[in-house]
Amino acid sequence: MLMTSLLILIPLAAAVAIIFARVEQAKWIALGGSLVAFVWSLILAIRFDEWGGDGFALEGAVAWLPKFGISIAWGADAVAMMLVLLSTFLMPLCVWGSFTAITSRIKEYYGWLMVLLGAMVGVFLARDLVVFYICFEFTLVPMFFLIAIYGGENRAHASVKFFIYTFTGSLIGLVGLLYIAWRHSVFAGDWSFDIAALTAFAASELTAQEQAWLLLALMAGFAVKIPLFPVHTWLPLAHTEAPTAGSVILAAVLLKLGTYGLYRFVLPMLPDAVIEYAPFIAVLSIIGILYAALICWVQTDIKKLIAYSSVSHLGFCVLGLFALNPLGVQGSVLYMLNHGLSTGALFFLVGMIYERYHTRDMDRMGGLAKKMPIWAFFMVFFVLASVGLPGLNGFVSEFLCLIATFVATPEFTEYPGVLGPWYAAIAGIGMIFAAMYLLIMVGKVVFGPFKEPATEDHHHGEHTLPADLSPREIGVLVPLAVLCIVLGIYPKIATDAMEQNVQTTLAAYPAKVEAMLAARQQSAEDTQASKPAGTGVPTHAFEEPHESLTEMFSPARYESPMPLASTPIALIPAAHLPKGGTP
Amino acid sequence: MTIETTHMMMLANTAAGPGWAGFILWFPLISLALCGLWSILRIKSKLPAWTTVGCLALAFLTTVALYVSYSEPVVIHLFDWFNLHWGSGAKAGSFVANFSLYVDSLTLLWMLFVTGLGTLIALYASEYMEPDVGKGYTRFFAGVSVFLFAMSCLVMGDNLVLLYLGWEGVGFASYWLIGYYYTKPSAVAAAKKAFIMNRIGDLGLALAIWFIWLNFGTVEFADLFAVIASGAYHTEAGGWSISAIPFLLMLGAFGKSAQIPLYVWLPDAMEGPTPVSALIHAATMVTAGVYLLCRMFPVMQLHELALPTVAWIGTSTAILSATIALAQYDIKRIMAYSTVSQLGFMFAGVGVMTTAGAAYHVFTHAFFKAVLFLTCGAIMHGFAGQLDLRKLSGIMRLRGWKVVSVTMLIGCLCLAGFPLTSGYFSKDMILAQAFTSGHSAVGWLLLFTAGLTAYYTFRVWFRVCIGPVHFEPGDEDHGDDHGHDDHGHGDHGHGDGKFHPHAPKWAVNFVLIAITVGAILAAIPYFMPSGEEGVKGGWVASMTLDSSARDGMYGVYAIEEKGKLFGADPYNAMYFVSAAFGLVGILIAWWLHLANRKAADALRAKLLANPLTRWLPTAMENKWYVDEIYHVFVRAPLWVIGHAFALIDRLFVDGLLVNGTGYLPRAVGRMFQPLQNGVLQSYAVLMAGGFALVVVLIVLVMPWLQPILADWMAGTGGAG
Known about the structure:
The complex is a heterodimer of chains A (583) and B (720). In chain A, 68% of the residues lie in helices and 3% in strands. By secondary structure, chain A is mainly alpha-helical. Chain B has helices at residues 6-11, 23-40, 47-68, 105-128, 137-156, 160-178, 185-216, 221-230, 239-256, 265-268, 274-283, 288-295, 297-300, 306-326, 331-351, 355-382, 402-416, 422-436, 440-464, 506-521, 538-545, 570-595, 597-609, 615-621, 626-672, 680-719, and strands at 15-16, 74-86, 93-103, 392-393, 470-471. In chain B, the strands form 2 sheets. Chain B has a 3-stranded mixed beta sheet. In chain B, strands 4-5 form a two-stranded antiparallel sheet. In chain B, helix 14 packs antiparallel against helix 15 and helix 15 packs antiparallel against helix 16 (355-382). Chain B is globular. The chains are: A mainly alpha (583), B mainly alpha (720). At the A-B interface, helix 7, helix 12, helix 14, helix 16 and helix 17 of A face helix 1, strand 2, strand 3, helix 6 and helix 7 of B.
């Protein structure tokens, strides 16, 4: 209990210390605090014994309001732990990256960052619904102030919109979660807000109709956070106006609260509704992927471009979750990490340009590689990671999400799904669009004839930045780059760690999907039977074995001198053999 | 015709290969790491070049060692990459795509010329890029290292996902190196275009991979071919989902290998430094599509129309780009279009089912096209960026340009299919097989294209290398912004106001001679035994024999009756027919571009003067306006849609829906605002009214509502 709580208390303690510290000490306290939190999370990660398992570790609970079954309960499974690590890993970089950018109201700034860290970690560690919700909403407060105080010209509007929009969504989500808790209290005779208990209850006891309404409510909360089309419009504004570190945290972690919510609550609690409405959500994701990508293409504000690219990218992430098979869910969780790393880094890079030129207008700059080769190197690197160049992290998760969507057909034996090739094929066009908008941006800003925006004279920062990146700025980017490479060529460390966990989360799905498909087929047959003969729906042509192909490659065709018995049937995964045994 | 099944049987227990083969991949990576180090240390010497040349030479030697020790297809596991498992027992499933290598003879054939030519061209570049020492020099060689690494992954990967890594990796290396002169807008645009065009093809490849996994349950070659051979695959998933696979693979191959409809990036890719054009955009990377189709040959036969489609697309590309090459003046661009055209020949070869012929043509083309590009590069380098064949003439007579002119002649002879050159034999295999397999229309069109090829090839050589000596320097910025003033070796001091071309030095000449010798010797394998009766192509064909490139061949399209050409076996008749076409082409070129150069200009003027024929030279010189067509029908609509979406997002989604909802509470507030008039009496009245309303609700509405609510609760509770 204490060990886990410390992870939340360390940043909060740092925040308190900052209040009493002198201005010039604030950033160092924040850096120290976040580093200690990171080291502590690493220690916890090493002691964490559910890597590769399907349970929770680091658990502990203290009764808070026993009468209502509310307790302060912590605990993490492998997925939550990865996201905790992502948050604690990024925060020191955000603090370090802000050293020169923030020149006024410094103490508050670092204080809010520390509070934000505590809240984010709290979301991922919470095992009690009330604690989860408190942390979930509390992340809004520091972010609101970070945008409202340290943001760009339009910061007031952006921060208010960000707050009200996501807060409204979360409230609807809260209503849904409270309904589950209330139904559980009626069912069990006692109140409990224990997430595990509620999950088990919801999955088995709620009616399909209730699940559908709850899906709507929960999606209202989480989809706004993700953000899913069409509730994404707060994001470009908030991202564009937020200070660099704010954008980084917003993209890297706060958006993941939404997808994490889907993984933690929606998938395990509402399986029937998820199966029913997965195609609908997938369609929204795909619209988001393509729609946001095309909007990216015509942006001239470089930060807005990357913000919209997040909308596009998170579409893949949601698509993977609703493929309802381990490939997709693992890919999706990996996507959460990878998007955090590469898009976070891109926001850092844009911030570095903004700090030097005070503009985000792509038309006013060009060919910066000439003056800033190191910056250009990192820019191209992270753009490629974001585009999904194989060998870097983005590819692994994108590929998994898409292949999972692709095979999520009723025919997929192990985990029948409700999506299929068309979903993946159309979403795949997003890969082309991603290359288009990001490379066009690179072509304009990094390459081409050198064009430097005129810096305003009234910039009187106490720090003078070198033309190219300073060692501090390089230091911020290098850890991100290293992780991009590591997760690109050895994703096994992450996929192995969550394999069991994901399967447990999906455990109920194969049977339910099959039952639903059977029911659908039954009702289709009933309809057909009730119709006069001859006008029914033709039976699926593709259910016929493909005669010519089977013949084409049957060993007999080759008039083999070798005995046919040596045909390597053993190599064929049993699941993929045609039903009715081997030929 | 005997039918190959032994290979498929062997795959069932593919042996583990030697781990040291991994060094073919690691050497380019080491080179990349060292180049990174040199760049951090700000090394301002030719060290990066020597590092890269050394590492690539080691990779080549490793490949040779692997070739020498090769006996049967092997899989070499390096480390786990995608390795996902789920379920247990009968419900178990997995998605496995490791960092493993699959080595069979096809792999070795490709790797031998990839690493061999890679080493030589890196050596050439060490001199060619000399003016950039201390500037982009290290970046250039790092890019070459990345390319070699990715290409090795592409060719050696034991599964489709690793192949895809290499596939995108070479595309990225190509992006890197085309955009090497990154301050030049045209180079940046060309790099971007190449990457995006390739991405379109890559989506096809990715979809093919997903379909393959859906249907066959594996993406590893050894297992995949075994499943296909056994015929025991998942047909329930739908016939169309299997039939789609070869067409999607094709799309990938067409993107990478610059075929219709995705060829437009390759000519623009000539914005890169010439060694890059030679290595990536002529000899190696662009043949990856041919490799893919050879490697996936069993899969390509999953639909009976797939291979004919390949044949026709290849033929159309060959003829289209040859006609464009006829009318260009930039010699490097002519070579680029000729590459597209020759790739069309190779695809046609695959399409008419001579993977041996296609592979042989890839092999010979790699040499002679590298020679041609490298000679163009030497000319461009020596004449300050001049590439216009109207402004260069008779350079053979200049001091120091003999090697360039002679090697270029040999390259041209090979490309033109002059009898007994390597290009002659390899092209003949494709042409003859077209007739043998009954695709005589393909055969005749390709023969005609071969004639055109001979013409435009010698148009370049007759114009540039012989004839009266006459040259104009280029504008120096053309192609390379070398900044010739910055370095000392150019002997064309601007002081005397006269331009002196600087002839290439030892490294360039050595590499030119070495690759030319290779191009000449590449004819020899044709006379070696191929290990199979009735199959020409000797050693190169034998390298495809033991691989998936021959699986299922003759099984699908069993050629009952061989086609004839003039009543003879096409393989024999072709020696004379193709030689005739080639010689006629060369003769016309000789007449128009050496003997009577005015005639060529007169012909063009005549065509332009006649309103009926004016379109022909105009359209050819403008590359049939394909770029413009793409712009109007693809790019512009997308651009409009993008702007429309941005507007919709701002005005409708955010404006009306979101902000509209946001204004709702305010509007409601406004509505009730008059009630707060500050008059005490009216508040009292409202209070009373409100109270009355509550009473009415409780008394009248609740009894009516209660049963409904109770019913609903009972309904949900009952199910719970």
